[in-house]
Amino acid sequence: MRNHPIPKLAAHWPEPNNGPMSYNAWMEQRTAFANALIAALPGPVNTNLPFEVHPYTHYQGQMPRNPKCYIIGTAPPASYLRSKVQGHDGMYPGPIVINGDQVGSAPNMLFYHGNVNSFWQAIGFPVITVEGILAQLNQRNIRYDDILHSWSRPRISSSNDQDLKDIVANVPLLEDVWSRTDSPYLWFTNSGVFNQSGIPIHNNANANGGPGRVMAHNMNMKAYNVFLRAWQELGAEVYVREVGNHHWIQIHAGNAVVLGGFNYKMQHELRIEFNGENPSGLQGVRSYPVLTGPSPARQAGLQMAQNPLYQAWSEGLAVVPANPTNAFRNHVYNQFFDWIAAHPAQ
Question: In this predicted structure, which of 2-11, 65-74, 221-230 has the lowest mean pLDDT?
């Protein structure tokens, strides 16, 4: 898979779309650029949309190799750069300015979803430290990873996924998921399938994709959308269906309306199929159970009252809790943990 060109998923940076470059060469180029950027901190960086390479991949070796479930997010805010100022131990407290935009305050923890720890608090992990989270993940046989390997953002101060550009998918994660024939769970931390937007599809060609491609930019820059789009770019046919042997719905332009209504689901199934020649060189079929729940982000809680899943849950309560959106998140995540624990994948 890595010896074939991997197109960027959201065009923005004014350069050729990888050309004949292999994934390995592309990764080396972006890593070198990111290292040069970091070495220049904390002064201004005179370049547009500097590349970032995911800073936490070294934790993958401390998580289960064959998990029952992969929890998959997007990317961290740029505040991790405060730990990388050369010659300064710990978090650099002074101003870090890139193209006139200042890096935000230091993360609570240098780990996936560690900026404010909202996800780890929402799923109820008792010890919110890197060591505590790794212990919980290993105990439950779950791996956490992000679907983005590298990206750019116009505003380095922004923590919004919708501002991410030049998306390059995390190919090692895709390789790992494909290697599994026992159908582990895939749990995405943000997805339109849980919310109103479903799976958004390009009807016409533009800079961000051709007809039938999953939208994975701006407001649709969500972990599940990027995951689906990455498989399409590798040459796969992708299908989804509701749990319970419903018919498969292929992700293409002809099904755009149906896929836009594929929403308000906590679980469904995904099928990835390679036929004939394709950019990845892969052949075969894999299927996975998929979990999509409420985002832990505070702004997502403001919209939750409009979600039919939330409404059905709250109507069944004898007493409404003091913080109902947090209680609903806990309810959903606890269901996920029960399903994962009972899953036969090893």
Answer: 2-11
The beta strands (E) that lie in 11-153 are given as: 51-53, 69-73, 97-98, 101-102, 142-146, 148-152
Separation in Å, CA 105 to CA 42, 77, 85: 14, 10, 14
Q: Is residue 10 part of a domain?
A: no
Residue 315: its H or E element: helix 308-315
Residue 5, in any domain of the structure = no
Residue 7 belongs to some domain of the structure? no
Eight-state DSSP code of residue 176:
H
The helix/strand/coil state of 185 is strand
For 32-84, what is each residue's pLDDT tens digit? 777 777 777 777 666 667 788 899 999 999 999 999 999 999 999 999 999 98
| pLDDT for position 51 | 81
Burial class of 258 by CB neighbour count within 10 A (0 to 12, 13 to 18, 19+): middle
12 domain residue, yes or no = no
Quote the domain boundaries for residue 82. 23-342
Burial class (CB in 10 A: 0-12, 13-18, 19+), 138: middle
Count up the domains in the chain and report the number: 1
Q: What are phi and psi of 53, to 5 degrees?
A: -110, 140
pTM of the model: 0.92
Separation CA 325–CA 302 (nearest Å): 9
**What distance lies between CA 196 and its chain's CA centroid?**
18
Between these two residues, 215 and 98, which has the higher pLDDT value? 215
Query: Residue 42: is the preceding peptide bond cis (ω within 30°)?
Result: yes
